[in-house]
């Protein structure tokens, strides 16, 4: 294969909250890059996962789900999602077909139907039911007609189950078919360009969400304070920010049992990043209204 035949491009994954974008990204990469939980706002960063194939390199860009809520953090997440569309080569519009179309879905379609970039509609979670698949396709077509758009950006729609891996291989092939001819953007051994400290903070936050479920869906953030690499071990200090003292009690748990469980669950994944033993020191700090403080958001990598 000549250099001119090689394909590569940036593929943005976009959809409303909790449609399975991160699960789909991990399935496409066959590697865990993006954290997963049933709680909306799990993904707060734009995360790039790089798939290297014979003759192609796909740079997936996982974005935060687009929300209708009005607080400062959510407005920022919406900006991140929209900015990711700039200069991308292909859009994966991920929809959850186990539930009907709502206001958030209408908003996402309003953005995507007007794009000039190719769109693949990924009808995800078919394992939970397929009765809404036709509804999504028909609603997209109605939006195209209402806006009098002559050329729809939609080039393909595909029912998949990211959780069970159904049609993921087929989707991967369709993505490559719709990429332009370009040289590779990253070294072939690179799997993500997401900074290590943010990967660590996301792993800790994922474990918190999974352990606490809906108790603290929007009220915590995780910052990696320091990473000290030694010959045989990596020492990492992490601070969890919450809004109120009552939330701190929940996260710490009785006799520190919750924090201990978070450390036990997070440590193996972090050790895979460094290929070393990891000492994880986790603290909890009350910081009222951290979501409304631009300086704090910037330090946490959200700004």
Describe the structure in your own words.
- The chain is α/β, with parallel strands linked by helices.
- It has two domains: 3-177, Rossmann fold, CATH 3.40.50; 196-299, 2-Layer Sandwich (GMP Synthetase, Chain A, domain 3), CATH 3.30.300.20.
- Helix content is 34%, strand content 23%.
- The strands form two sheets. A six-stranded mixed beta sheet has the order 2-3-1-4-5-6, sandwiched between helices.
Quick overview of this protein structure:
This protein is of the alpha/beta class and 303 residues long. It has helices at residues 21-29, 72-83, 103-112, 133-146, 168-177, 196-212, 245-252, 257-274, 294-299, and strands at 7-14, 47-53, 56-62, 90-96, 119-124, 154-159, 220-229, 233-242, 277-286.
Briefly note the structural class of the backbone.
Answer: alpha/beta
Quote the CATH topology of the largest domain: Rossmann fold
CATH architecture annotation name of the largest domain:
3-Layer(aba) Sandwich
State the domain count: 2
Rounded to an integer in angstroms, the radius of gyration calculated over CA atoms is 20 Å
Per CATH, the class of the largest domain reads Alpha Beta
Strands, total number: 9
In helices, the fraction of residues equals: 25-40%
Helix and strand succession?
A: EHEEHEHEHEHHEEHHEH
Write out the strand line-up for the largest beta sheet, numbering strands in chain order: 2-3-1-4-5-6
* Strand residue percentage: 15-25%
Number of helices: 9
Question: What low-confidence regions span 5 or more consecutive residues with pLDDT below 50?
Answer: 35-44
Note the quaternary state here: single chain
Main sheet characteristics: 6 strands, mixed
CATH superfamily of the largest domain: P-loop containing nucleotide triphosphate hydrolases
């Amino acid at each position: 294969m000549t250099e001119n035949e090689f394909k590569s491009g940036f593929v943005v994954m976009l959809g409303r909250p909790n449609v399975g974008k991160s699960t789909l990204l991990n399935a496409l990469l066959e590697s865990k890059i993006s954290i997963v939980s049933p709680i909306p706002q799990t993904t707060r960063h734009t995360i790039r996962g790089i798939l290297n194939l014979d003759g192609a390199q796909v740079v997936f860009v996982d974005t935060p789900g687009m929300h209708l809520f009005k607080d400062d953090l959510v407005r920022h997440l919406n900006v991140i999602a929209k900015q990711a569309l700039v200069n991308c080569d292909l859009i994966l519009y991920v929809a959850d077909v186990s539930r009907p179309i709502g206001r958030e879905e209408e908003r996402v379609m309003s953005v995507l139907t007007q794009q000039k970039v190719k769109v693949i509609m990924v009808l995800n979670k078919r394992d939970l039911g397929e009765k809404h698949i036709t509804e999504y396709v028909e609603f997209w077509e109605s939006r195209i007609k209402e806006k009098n758009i002559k050329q729809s950006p939609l080039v393909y729609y595909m029912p998949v189950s990211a959780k069970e891996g159904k049609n993921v291989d087929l989707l991967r092939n369709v993505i490559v078919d719709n990429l332009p001819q370009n040289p590779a953007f990253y070294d072939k051994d690179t799997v993500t360009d997401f900074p290590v400290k943010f990967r660590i903070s996301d792993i800790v936050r994922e474990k918190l969400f999974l352990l606490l479920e809906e108790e603290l869906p929007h009220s915590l953030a995780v910052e990696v304070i320091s990473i000290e690499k030694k010959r045989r071990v990596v020492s990492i200090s992490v601070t969890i920010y919450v809004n109120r003292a009552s939330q701190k009690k929940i996260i710490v748990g009785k006799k520190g049992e919750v924090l201990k469980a978070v450390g036990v669950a997070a440590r193996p994944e972090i050790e895979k990043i460094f290929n070393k033993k990891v000492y994880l020191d986790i603290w909890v700090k009350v910081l009222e209204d951290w979501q409304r403080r631009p300086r704090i958001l910037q330090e946490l990598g959200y700004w």
